[in-house]
Records
---
Amino acid sequence: MQTIFQTIKEIAIEIDHAIKTEDLGYSDSSNSSGEDQLKLDVKSDFLIEKAFASVDIVKNLVSEEKEGVLELHENGKYTVCYDPLDGSSLADVNLSVGSIFGIYEGELKGENLVASAYVVYGPRIELMIATKEGKPLHYRAQEGLFNFIGEVTLNEKGKLNAPGGTQKNWCDYHKTFVDDLFAEGYRLRYSGGMVPDLHQILLKGGGIFSYPGTSDVPNGKLRQLFEVIPFAFMYEQAGGQAVNNKGVRLMELVPSHPHDTSPCFFGSNYEIEKLKEAYGVTA
Ligand code: P6P
């Protein structure tokens, strides 16, 4: 597994360089979710595939930018599911973007996730790694090397509220839930980039990130294998919770297709319990 984390560190340095030096325009293709691909999306996906091509323990790759499962090494052990450059459309307005990695062993489902990692490309390159051994581990790059900063723990209750999705298409009880948190004094922190938005809540002690099902997108927008489940693992390892609109742990998801999405809520315990109450799904 350490070889995979070392490879992610090397990938992070390469993608950061690409963000800072390459064309931010659109390619002439779109991905499996029908989203227009930036040249940076394609380049980041290429860099990740090239890097893992030399890591024998990686059996398969599943990418947001690819249709199906790409076999790399027949005798490999892990499947790496990744979003090569999440929120890439924010790069041309100089906001932070990120890469997300879920490392699975066996069938691609939540309970088979063995580790997850994400990289934030911002004023600094930051890396978070979660395994079953303990709390998420936070690293920061300096001159191409990643220095360990510390373990990350969510407080029982936070103060940040990151409400995703098109507000006019929220259901009434979701709108009430979001407004009630603001009435309690929560601060709005939403950039439109899942990685920096969830990273901020983890590092600032807690709160909630929500991307619900909406009238136009009932199953939500965020992809289970390479966005939702990897962050669900991060948040649970940090002492928080991560559930869907039925109050079910996102770690119990079993996608039927590599690009399946799910409504998703990640946060400190207080906020997630409030969400379950608002959705009428308290245990
Ligand atoms: P909306 C970026 O496109 C992304 O996939 C996530 O990074 C982000 O959380 C979400 O979509 C933002 O979606 O609908 O709020 O713009």
---
Amino acid sequence: MKRINILGSTGSIGTQTLEIVRDNPDLKVMALSAGSNIEKLEAQIREFKPVLAAVWSEENASALRTKVADLPVRIVSGMDGLIEIAEMEEYDVLVTAIVGMIGIRPTIAAIKNHKNIALANKETLVTAGHIIMPLAKEMNVSILPVDSEHSAIFQSLQGNPGNRLEKILLTASGGPFRGKKREELAGMTVEDALKHPNWSMGKKITIDSSTLVNKGLEVMEAKWLFNCDLDKIQVVVQPQSIIHSMVQYVDGGIMAQLGMPDMKLPIQYALFYPDRRPMDTKRVDFFKLGQITFEEPDIEVFEGLKLAYTAAKGGGSLPTVFNAANEKAVAMFLDRRISFLEIYDIIRACMENHKIIQSPNVDEILSSEREAYDFIASKWGV
Ligand code: NAD
Ligand code: MG
């Protein structure tokens, strides 16, 4: 029996993780958490019977307590609630399916609690990878990638010592606006940006895919997960999303992981690694597919990737500012307060305004986040 706790159980990754639990009776959910969707969380609590559940506001926690008063589950709230889930004794793996930098503290708490991490929450590694990876090593804890590209890289590395790696070929679909010119991007709406060609995901990451910020975050995520220099990570656009990423070895040989675009495979692989379990999902039909094509990313138009490389090279607290500015800008875009291209303007302005702190601790990461938010408020009035 493997016991799992999920941060962000009502989201896209969270609900797909629970589908896997449904199909595998030797998985047991011990704790769940959600931002504010207490109706969905209540249904999950009734079905999966965790002993602990968290929501963000105390008001929602109190409402949920009333709803599930007939069940032996404790309801907690806020950051303390997320940390309590991470610090529980009776579980094996923490699935970080929460979105944003809010995942940093609970992830660190879980590692200190000697729990393995199935990591979807890339923002945590991008901003605090320099804290998380050494801590995981010290605590002898595994950080198992859930992100499809990183799972593909991880799968392609099986059986090959990492020091024989020449480069990582990180694939990208190119998002809904692939091939567009900068002038065309200017008028793109929230609805346009939410139409991802291949993947069905949460709103924030879907917008990040349309700006290529997601790929930029993934470059940094790969750097930390695989201890790889930035110049050894190459982004390759592969519009059909069949090759989920590749690694090239020193002899020129390339290993890739292919499959239909479906997050359940990487989630399940992380949960059962090193085992593979049967999964009843769509298979690739190469004759129907016909071709797999490749392109170079256009980083002048999709500035999100270019800014990410600048952030990654600057290091220290700059990736935090990149990420925080993006989190805020995406929320503003989804609220229709700014245009599509202003997402880039906001990230760029925040990065230019920031004085880098080398090796920031968690408080400094969070103060860099706050600084970016204050700067956006002063310039954009939100
Ligand atoms: P989502 O928006 O669908 O879900 C986010 C979850 O986090 C929800 O359950 C939400 O309730 C919870 N949450 C948000 N704020 C919270 C708070 N303050 N306290 C507690 N819970 C809170 O997002 P998603 O698409 O599932 O993405 C989750 C993470 O996984 C992100 O970091 C994303 O980049 C990464 N990821 C997602 C996919 C995908 O296919 N969806 C693929 C790769 C990586
Ligand atoms: Mg991905």
